[in-house]
Amino acid sequence: MPTNHPASTPRHGAPRPAPRRRATPRRYLMCPPDHFRVTYSINPWMDPGKPVDLPLARTQWEDLRDRYRALGHTVELLTPRPDLPDMVFAANGATVVDGRVLGARFAYRERFEESAAHLSWFRAHGFTAIHEPAHVNEGEGDFAVTASYLLAGRGFRSSPLSHGEAQEFFGRPVVGLDLVDPRYYHLDTALSVLDEAGDEIMYYPDAFSPGSRAVLARLFPDALIAEEADAAALGLNAVSDGLHVLLPQAATGLFAPLRARGFEPVPMDLGELLKGGGSVKCCTQELRG
Q1: Catalytic residue list
Q2: Which residues are CB-neighbours of 262 under 8 A, at least 6 positions away?
Q3: Collapsed DSSP state (helix, strand, coil) of residue 101
């Protein structure tokens, strides 16, 4: 796919002095990959002909969980179900903002029952402002939260109708973004929030339609722009606490630009989970508020 970035967007975003960054404690929901396997294909990364090394997947997932805890974050655990092999990708099960929970409604029947498993967890853990959606959305797969906006992907999974539903529930302005490359089937494979409070993101422009690229360039003129090689390593499927950015270790081209902006990249190896089309962010749902 040819590159067609807005003319005003520099290669790695506009240069600026690196600010002094500060990590803030986060609360995450994760699900162990006890039953992870690839027996069907619902995105271009999934190939049932490539076997999953389950012990290695478990070790890689545990390394991510332990890294969060070592950085001072809280990790809650969702119990995996044998009939739902993709539950390890916990980010897709809901979106939580200010303690309010917008449930997911999955596009594919293979994952449909994950929605109920997530909502049961929230109800059991004291969340009361819970909305069961009428329209298809796949949680933080297609919703990204900044201080000013709720960025919302569409084109492969989530319905455009879910954007209005989310705006009404959260009371936050929703910005719809069209995804056009099937490799980047969820927003969290093409865009990552680096500093929620500062409205700071990184993204891969060629994953988006021309109009959506223009919107992103207008709203986030200083965004870090990822190159194709790093996007193809799912380098944008990352999690930031405001200082540390946990991202796939193969996305080496992002390390120096992140450091130049004052962030500390933390490379992670989730190669086995990549066989299901997910990495750091897909495994991590943030419980905000």
Answers
A1: 186, 282
A2: 18, 19, 20, 21, 243
A3: strand
132-167 as b/e: b if 16+ CB within 10 A: ebeebbbbbbbbbbbeebbbbbbbbbbbeebbebbe
Beta pairing partners, 151 = 144, 175
Question: What's residue 195's pLDDT?
Answer: 98
Give phi and psi for 96, each to the nearest 5: -120, 120
At 175, list the tokens.
Answer: 């910005």
Cβ neighbourhood burial of 188 (10 Å; 0-12, 13-18, 19+): buried
Distance, in Å, from the CA atom of 224 to the CA atom of 231, rounded to the nearest integer, reads 12
The answer to whether 64 and 94 are in contact (CB under 8 A) is no
What pTM, to 2 d.p., does this model score?
A: 0.93
User: Distance between CA atoms of 144 and 179, rounded to whole angstroms?
Assistant: 14
Collapsing DSSP to helix, strand or coil, 169 comes out as helix
From 95, 94, 33, 93, select the one nearest 63 (Cα to Cα): 33
Token pair for 207: 């994953």
pLDDT digits (tens, 9 = 90+) for 78-103: 999 999 999 999 999 999 999 999 99
CA angle, corner 289, sides to 18 and 102, nearest 5? 110
